[in-house]
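Reminder: ligand-aware prediction takes two inputs, not one.
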Amino acid sequence: MITQDIFYLGVDDKTIDLFEGQYLVPNGISYNSYLILDEKAAVLDTVDARKTEEYLAKLEQALGGRTPDYLVVHHVEPDHASSIQAVVEKYPSVQLVASAKALQMLPQYFESLDLSGAIAVKDGDVLQLGRHSLTFMAAPMVHWPEVMVSYEPTSKTLFSADGFGKFGALDTQEEWDCEARRYYFNIVGKFGPQVQALLKKAASLQIERICPLHGPILEENLGHYLNLYDIWSRYEPETDGVFIAYASLHGNTAKAAQKLADILKQKGCAQVEMADLARSDMAEALENAFRYSKVVLAASSYNGGVMPFMEDLLHHLAAKNYQKRRVGLVENGSFGPCANRTMQQLLSGMKEIDLVEPAVTIRGAVKESDIPALEALADALLA
Ligand code: FEO
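Here is what comes back for the chain with MU-OXO-diiron:
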């Protein structure tokens, strides 16, 4: 129970290995759904088809013998919408409420779903439930084009769809920021301007509770979460520090990266984080590239280009609209070093990337003669 009349209907999924077929979720994920019981009963979103049976049982229990009047669809992506057909089959009189775009998209997933009685709502429309009501706000591309969020004024609750979501099942004891940040940049990161537009709309509301479609319901210290979303969606760094991502063939580039980290710390940089791209979660490396104010990319040259793990990171960053960062480059090459040139080319399509000079070239093992260049890069990063 969230309030006397608003109920949590979501489920934890701790058996899924990859969310969206690509993101590691070691602590699972929750698919959140809500029920408002008033003169009318409204179900808000459903859950992934992996959990339909468990969900229907929870819904039936929460309804306490009532039949839902409305099924509000904020987002059509299957992790929330793939149990819609099952709900409609169980409660045939339920009326779907969604954006026109969502109603247009639903038949892609449900060929036989009867949409003739569905209610199309648009930005600013209000669904009256009795004492409660839902005011809809279009939130296109947060994270799909059909997305809406809604605000319930009696309880001052924002139903925020994927916004303010987090990886990790609800029974996981972990800090919100880290897994919410990894979720944000990988799922919604490309759409900063659209998130900014939504935050501007939300700024006029009195919000005491945020109910997202993944992760915990947020009820305390809301300024903290809103502030992080503002920073993230403006592509501003959250933490002043250096993230060193490296891809090393025989361990020498890894040693250069470690040496640079040691020099940075000696020079007083308190926040240095490293990732071996061959052995760490690419989604977390991407998250850290957005988190820190400065990034160093250190990589072996490979086949006339750069080691594929580094190329992969740069492609992921470009796809998520990476921008506004200071970036240092370290390459290794025993013959014809070309990693820096390749990394520079991949960075050149991104906005407001400030390449920090000097770029460093190591040839084979890290030698005493390489230290001055690493020192100079560290000084430039900290300047
Ligand atoms: Fe959680 Fe965009 O679906």
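Residues 75, 77, 79-80, 143-144, 162, 213-214 surround MU-OXO-diiron (CB under 6 Å). Residues 252-266 form the longest helix (15 residues). We will return to this case in the review session.
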